[in-house]
Amino acid sequence: MSNSTIAAAKETLNKKGYLDIEVDPTLDLVAEINKLKKEKNAIILAHYYQESEIQDIADYIGDSLGLSQQAASTEADIIVFAGVHFMAETAKMLSPSKKVLLPDLKAGCSLADSCPAPLFKKFKAKYPDHKVVSYINCTADLKVLTDICCTSTNAVHIIESIPADTGIIFAPDRNLGAYLKKKTGRDLVLWNGACMVHEIFSHEKITKLMVRYPEAEFIAHPECEAHLLDIASYIGSTSGLLRYTQESKSETFIVATEAGILHQMQLKSPNKKFIPAPPNNTCACNDCPHMKRNTMEKLYLAMKYELPEIHLEAEVIEKGRACIDKMLDISAKAGL
Ligand code: 13P
Ligand code: SF4
Fold it and tell me: What letter does residue 278 receive in the DSSP assignment?
């Protein structure tokens, strides 16, 4: 591809955050993406909240912990991240010599945005003796201010790995933080952030559904509010929720997390029924608008032009990576 073609493509990206180039609608995108994967020795890592078609073409689908482990260990030259910005940043920190592509740079995260690093720095200064544990759903700049990262899969292990007499600040999710306080009995100082998707569920509509489907189990992600977690029969990360639906004898589940996970639940248990927990508004869906910015067309264009690429300063990679490495180390020792 000529330099001028790439420069013209980049121009469309600068304005929109993704390559705004028309894709021939007759193109077999699955075949083209698979071809590009081979040609370029690229790997596609996808989060469970991606649209079904993207999940189906990914080399690895997983939760935030699994995706980080894959990003750290892959032999591929290019990591194409079908997820959101903080996930691609994490992949870049773990594999700095590799090219990391995110099909749409504007695929952000309301939770990561709820904790700007300069404000958090001032907050942290009030607790000079505390360790900072940050949920991986945060910016690279916040990771620089963090001692140990965690995901919803390993958060309890990470908190419990810190000596009981050490104070802990937990950021940015107040709901996961409150859940961890309850689960570990530790007095965590919480940053007041939240995820827009997991705070939209309607308690009233869910309880009505539970009456309508008395045989159903209500299961929830720990980013949900406490009043929902209190009525859940299982609380876990996306991979935890998926595993639970496979192992439980129940045939029907009301699922309180982003609706993308239902695709894998249905694939793994075709005879079971999965009902997305209803949100607090008139919309029937609970999609993450950030996750859903990625499309097959954007994925194809990102792989073809090798754009948009994630760039991080060497200092951010070095300082931010330390908290992720600690998390991966504790997770490996715990067999997660
Ligand atoms: P996990 O898949 O790690 O549970 O995270 C959920 C989430 O909100 C990712 O953005
Ligand atoms: Fe962020 Fe919530 Fe979307 Fe996950 S579901 S990417 S936490 S906004």
Answer: P
Give the closest residue (by CA) to ligand 1 atom 2: 63
Tens of pLDDT, residues 132-185? 999 999 999 999 999 999 999 999 999 999 999 999 999 999 999 999 999 999
Predicted confidence at residue 282, as pLDDT, reads 65
> Ligand 1 centre and the CA of 195: distance in Å?
10
Domains, in order of start, for the chain: 3-108+290-305 (3.40.50.10800), 111-195+317-333 (3.40.50.10800), 203-276 (3.40.50.10800)
Q: In this model, does residue 15 exceed pLDDT 90? A: no
Q: Strand (E) positions, the chain?
A: 42-47, 60-62, 78-82, 99-101, 131-135, 148-150, 168-171, 189-190, 217-220, 234-235, 252-256, 273-276
Residues 6 or more apart whose Cβ sits within 8 Å of residue 197? 110, 223, 257, 258, 286, 287, 288
- Residue closest by Cα to atom 1 of ligand 1: 63
Q: How many A from CA of 31 to the centre of ligand 1?
A: 29
Backbone angles phi, psi at 146, to 5 degrees: -105, 145
Look at 124-128, 278-282, 321-325 and tell me which has the smallest mean pLDDT: 278-282
Instruction: Specify the ligand 1 atom closest to the Cα of 48.
Output: 2
Query: Is the CB of 104 inside a 6 Å radius of any atom of ligand 1?
Result: no
Q: Which two tokens stand for residue 100?
A: 């990391």
Is there a contact between 321 and 315 (Cβ–Cβ < 8 Å)? no
Q: Rounded distance, CA 321 to CA 229, Å?
A: 32
* Atom nearest to 49 CA in ligand 2: 5
DSSP state of 123: H
State in Å: Cα 8 to ligand 1 middle. Answer: 35
Cα radius of gyration rounded to whole Å, the chain: 20
**pTM for the whole thing?**
0.96
Mean pLDDT within 99-119: 97
Q: How many CB atoms lie within 10 A of CB 28?
A: 10
Torsion angle, CA of 231/234/240/242, rounded to 10 degrees?
A: -90
